[in-house]
Write a structure and sequence with these properties.
The chain is α/β, with parallel strands linked by helices and about 450 residues long. It has 2 domains: about 5-205, Acetylglutamate kinase-like (Carbamate kinase), CATH 3.40.1160.10; about 290-435, VC0802-like. It contains 14 helices and 15 strands. Aspartic acid binds near residues 49, 114, 184, 186 and 187.
Length: about 450
């Protein structure tokens, strides 16, 4: 059987109307056997997520304050869902138990009940088994996720069920206490279940039809990305595109399972396929896959006559950054010049000391600092080994009269990064986008 693991996010499960859409999606394909659920999310912009309310309950309990009126809101939401779904389920005892335990439990137990309670409801609605992730997803005594033992337990447990609902976001520690992943962690659970169940695909259902080629706040209705490789995704995410968390990608990436980002509100849209590099049957149809970028970088540029002949110069320079505990992003260099590109938050309060050390240790002829730099990554496996791609990109920036402060092409030719003045950022993204995509 070609198992599909589906994870539905909070907006897909915010109320009974959304949950019924989810039911239709699951029941339209018999391969959708294992369903990972988030807690109910926002019904509209000003609404509150159940998880946020639960954390608020915990904050009150910790200070010895009553949290009953906050829990009332949570209780109403679940009881409303059960009623609207017309389920024959007496849910009050479950809610009472959680309400009582919050007073003596830590934040992880409390927060995890959002998915636990939702999972019980969805399992009842679908008429399938419920698997408590505390039984199969393990953290060590220090709270670190234990992938090996989890994989063994999940794989074994899934063979015992034809179909099941598994709440996302949490597992347990050796002493049995509940432990959650970081916020948004149901994505991670979905990936773990997909791996344990040797799924043919991990469907991640949310409220958008996949990833977009560029930030929609900059480009009006950018094209969706049909297929992206894990490697490209990493480049895009690193440069600020908001996609699945790295942690969520890891288990499925390791197992070579593709992830399909889908839209619960538009289930016929194909969404975005995130695929392992070597499973790409079709060559990309577009030259670039996506554009992402971030502001707030600084370039520290050095010039020194005959630098290229001086052994160990680069090392000495980078050691200065290392000694100050600063991570660098790029080190573009020329014959007698070398620059270090650093994110501003890394430099916080340290710039003057770093410059002083560079002057003392590297003795540059000239030292310049360019602040307010934005980096833009143009990513695409379709660019590799294709002449003319860089020309098209830089030609577009030139035509838009944008000065390029830095260029870095990754050795995989998957990615061209350029640095521009922060004020030119939006204009530059737009120029690059329309250089490759018809407007
Ligand atoms: N409910 C949790 C959160 O809001 C986990 C998740 O939805 O992925 O962070």
């Amino acid at each position: 059987m070609s198992t599909i693991v589906c994870k539905f996010g909070g907006s897909s499960l915010a109320d009974a109307r959304q949950i019924l859409k989810v039911k239709d999606i699951i029941e339209s394909d018999a391969n959708r056997r294992f369903i990972v659920v988030s807690a109910p999310g926002k019904r509209e912009k000003s609404d509150q997520k159940v998880t946020d309310l639960l954390y608020l309950c915990h904050e009150h309990a910790k200070r010895g304050m009553t949290y009953d009126n906050i829990f009332d809101l949570i209780e109403q939401r679940y009881l409303q869902i059960v009623e609207d779904l017309k389920l024959d389920l007496d849910f009050k005892p479950q809610l009472d138990e959680v309400r009582g335990r919050i007073a003596n439990e830590g934040p992880d137990y409390t927060a995890s009940r959002g998915e636990a309670l939702n999972g019980m409801i969805i399992a009842a609605l679908l008429g399938v088994d419920f698997i408590d992730p505390a039984d199969v997803i393990y953290f060590d005594a220090n709270g670190r996720f234990d992938p090996e033992n989890t994989q063994i337990a999940v794989a074994k447990r899934l063979t015992e069920h034809e179909r099941a609902v598994i709440p996302g976001f949490y597992g347990s520690m050796p002493d049995g206490r509940v432990k959650t992943f970081s916020r948004g962690g149901s994505d991670v659970t979905g990936a773990i279940i997909a791996r344990g169940g040797a799924a043919k695909v991990y469907e991640n259902w949310t409220d958008v039809s996949g990833l977009l080629m560029a930030d929609p706040r900059i480009i009006d209705q950018p094209n969706p990305i049909a297929t992206v490789t894990y490697k490209e995704l990493r480049e895009l995410a690193y440069m600020g595109a908001s996609v699945l968390h790295d942690e969520a990608i890891f288990p499925v990436r390791q197992a070579g399972i593709p992830v399909n980002i889908r839209n619960t509100n538009a289930p016929d849209d194909a969404g975005t396929m995130i695929v392992p590099n070597d499973r790409l049957d079709e060559p990309p149809t577009t030259a670039i896959t996506g554009i992402a970028g971030r502001k707030d970088f600084t370039i520290i540029a050095l010039e020194k006559a005959l630098m290229n002949a001086e052994l160990g110069y680069g090392r000495k320079l980078l050691e200065v950054f290392e000694d100050h505990g600063i991570n660098f992003e790029h080190v573009p260099s020329g014959i007698d010049t070398i620059s270090v590109v650093v994110a501003d938050d890394e430099l916080d309060g340290k710039l003057e000391d770093v410059l002083e050390d560079i002057r003392a240790i590297c003795k540059p002829d000239h030292l310049e600092v360019h602040r307010h730099i934005a980096l833009i990554a143009t990513v695409g496996r379709g660019m590799a080994h294709h002449p003319g791609m860089a020309a098209r990109l830089f030609g577009a920036l030139g035509a838009a009269a944008i000065n390029i402060r830095m260029i870095d092409q990754g050795s995989s030719e998957l990615n061209i990064i350029c640095g521009v003045e922060a004020d030119d950022f939006e204009k530059a993204v737009s120029a690059i986008y329309y250089a490759f995509v018809e407007g």
